[in-house]
Amino acid sequence: GFSNWKKAIERFGTHEKSNLHRAAVSSLGAVKAGVNVAAACSEAKQMKEARSALIKILSSVQYLSCQGLSVQGHTDKESNLNQLLALRAEDTPDLKSWLNRTKYRWISHDIVNEMIEIVAHDVLRTLMKEIHKAGFFSIIMDETADISVREQVSICFHIVNKNLDTEEIFFGFYNTSDTTSQALYTLLKDVLLRFDFPLKCRGQCYDGAASVAGCRRGLQVLVQEDEPQAVYVHCLAHTVNLVVQDVAQNIAACRNFLTLIRELISLVKNSLKCLAWFKEFQRAGKETLRSFCPTHWTLRAASLQSVASNYSELLEFLEELQKYYEVIDCVTNSLCNRFTSSVFTHMTEIKKFCFSKLFSVLFRLHLLWKVAVIISCSYGRKVKSSYYYLNNLRCSRYSVNF
């Protein structure tokens, strides 16, 4: 017991600071509180682990979306999301224990779709701020059918940022059951209203379809009725593509040459046996044959270049293929005869050189404008780059190109 009451206050203060007294007070508090405190601590720990797992799941969904990978698979177990979470769970105990639960785990189809929608809305809100800061913008729209044969309209906004550089901001695809000018105009107004954009439009760019480019009731006329300063510009890349297509179709030599080259590429690539046989003739390091792009004519330069780099190998392959005329069809045999004839070979050499140069020039111009858009440089620099390239081509055409 305690008997030195003269120094009681001093001794009591010393006792309160001792480890024994603190442990006793802590034990007494736990006994008085009962199971409520223990339950609260356990619940707080579970909440912390669940929050950590949710962040890991959300970041995994964001990663797959940014990389353009599918989230779901043929089965839930084989889906990219579940496989990625299983890989990350090896280094994250909280996520591993969460995935081993038998209750809800926040990876159902509906919840994952909701996560993607939340991320998409957050991105759109960030892009909205950029357009609101710019004040004025131009509109770029194009309608096309997807793989499920549903009409979709892509909408982009062209702005000038505070550094006076142009930026092209993609705002998504929008379904439409009608591609008339009035339907597209209603869709455009709905998008502007949804994102709280006033019609401070200074430019509009579409392809040459009548529903958008019509001078009387096209989409560009309807927009100009509300905003007269919205100048319509026909898409330059589409214009170049139409010019190349028209020139190639109206020059007989070019049309026939491209038709034969397309047939030659199809002969090799449409048959697995022919393709495997052709690779035996192909030298190491040579690029593979590339099929013609059905719509973008400026991209056919790559196909012509692939034929030019493998031209001698193609002739050897066709000569060898002719030896087996008994097992090949008459069309293939006729094509082989035309390509391997001496007169046609010399004419093809000339056309191959000329048309490859022509399409390569157009393809370089296409790349100049495309890269200029990606790095957000000014239109003055785009025009200047195109001018310098064409000028250098003219100066060197006799010594190098022609």
UniProtKB/TrEMBL annotation:
Pfam families associated with the record: DUF4371 (PF14291)
Location of the DUF4371 domain: 61-214
Name of the protein in question:
DUF4371 domain-containing protein
What is the protein's species of origin?
Answer: Latimeria chalumnae (Coelacanth)
